[in-house]
Design brief:
Elements (H helix, E strand, L loop, with lengths): L3 E4 L24 H10 L3 E7 L1 H4 L5 H16 L7 E5 L21 H10 L7 E4 L2 H10 L2 E5 L4 H4 L8 E3 L2 H8 L1
Helix pairs in contact: 1-7
Length: about 180
């Protein structure tokens, strides 16, 4: 079984911008490409798990999400880094049409992590979830992962909400340096 680091996207990989979907609005948080490259070099699988309720709300499409992920992958490639798997939840209870349904993939539920574990033979007990919101931490814990909250994005505001069993780092690069 493989070891993985699950990463939230908005506020962890990129600068938080509400309902980010346009390539031209994307900006890495400083140090992120290096952090992901360090995980790659250590042989740790990198899996992005991101809630994208903007799809359910009609703000953008799944194609927009996938285009942005291709763009981020290209930018990471310029730094010798890559994400192994991109997973996203397009659902929201107050969304539209087929996206307005209860699901197990929307964090804080662990569905995306569990799906990745089954599909890619990941050992959740030996894996880590890193994110900037309590929903990320709760999803990681529910999946049986070690959890790290980063102070980027909403993390500085959510820090007081996580328990002592969750580590806290200033940013993704600092967190990854503790892991590798």
């Amino acid at each position: 079984m493989k070891r993985a680091v699950f990463l939230d996207r908005d506020g962890t990989i990129n600068i938080e911008k509400e309902y980010l979907y346009r390539v031209q609005d994307f900006e890495f948080i400083p140090g992120v490409p290096e952090a992901i490259r360090l995980l790659n070099q250590a042989g740790i699988m990198v899996v992005v798990v991101t809630n994208q309720s903007g799809v359910a709300r009609g703000y953008y499409t799944e194609e927009d999400v996938e285009n942005l992920h291709r763009h981020i992958s290209g930018e990471l490639g310029h730094h010798g880094a890559h994400v192994d798997v991109w997973l996203y939840c397009p659902h929201h209870p107050s969304g539209r049409g087929s996206y307005a349904l209860p699901c197990n993939c929307r964090k804080p539920l662990p569905g995306m992590l569990q799906e990745a574990a089954v599909t890619y033979d990941i050992d959740l007990g030996n894996s880590v979830m890193i994110g900037d919101k309590t929903a990320d931490i709760e999803a990681g814990k529910a999946a049986g992962c070690r959890t790290i909250l980063v102070r980027t994005g909403y993390g500085a505001d959510d820090e007081h909400r996580v328990g002592s069993d969750t580590e806290v780092s200033d940013n993704l690069l600092t967190a990854v340096k503790l892991l590798v």
